[in-house]
Amino acid sequence: MAYSEKVIDHYTNPKNVGTLDKSKKNVGTGLVGAPECGDVMRLQIEVDEESGIIKDAKFKTFGCGSAIASSSLATEWLKGKTVDEAINIDNMDIVEELNLPPVKIHCSVLAEDAIKSAINDYRVKNGLPELTEEGAKH
Ligand code: FES
After folding, report:
1. Atom of ligand 1 at shortest distance to CA of 64?
2. How many angstroms separate the CA atoms of 34 and 111, rounded?
3. Locate the NIF system FeS cluster assembly NifU N-terminal domain: which residues (predicted)?
4. d(Cα 91, Cα 95) in Å, to the nearest integer?
């Protein structure tokens, strides 16, 4: 299987690997697993409380190269977006950007689910309702 250069770059040189302090109120943590393969991804966002802009994002992925590349790309895209804009990141955008083959589409779904899960955690911590489409989409 031929992987695109972008996948290989994000895999060999992942951006934003790490951990944010999940006890902080402005940090949202998402932890999701892929039923297809058992891979697990944790993704965190840190939100600037005044502007609502995501000022930092980190991930740790125990999974395949495409999942690592998808989460690396996702954290890059998250930084600088508002939480509301981040909701609209779609796994197919990740598929397109990384040129993932069909068998690896679920790896990008994992990244989208992790983003939504992190946003939900942030919302609940800050007294906002959970996203209603969570869980229903996939
Ligand atoms: Fe399952 Fe990539 S093979 S996340």
Report:
1. 2
2. 10
3. 2-126
4. 6
Q: Is 80 left (phi over 0), alpha (psi -120 to 50) or beta?
A: left
* Bridge partner list, 17: 59
For the question of residue 64 being annotated catalytic, the response is no
Annotated active-site residue 37? The verdict is: yes
pTM as predicted: 0.93
Nearest CA to ligand 1 atom 3: 64
Q: What is the DSSP letter of 19?
A: -
Of 60, 90, 64, the C-alpha closest to 77 is: 90
Instruction: Give Cα 31 distance to the centre of its chain.
Output: 10
- pLDDT tens string for the chain (138 positions)? 678 999 999 999 999 999 999 999 999 999 999 998 999 999 999 999 999 999 999 999 999 999 999 999 999 999 999 999 999 999 999 999 999 999 999 999 999 999 999 999 999 999 999 987 644 444
The answer, yes or no, to whether any atom of ligand 1 lies below 6 A from the CB of 34, is yes
Q: Whose CA is nearest to atom 4 of ligand 1?
A: 107
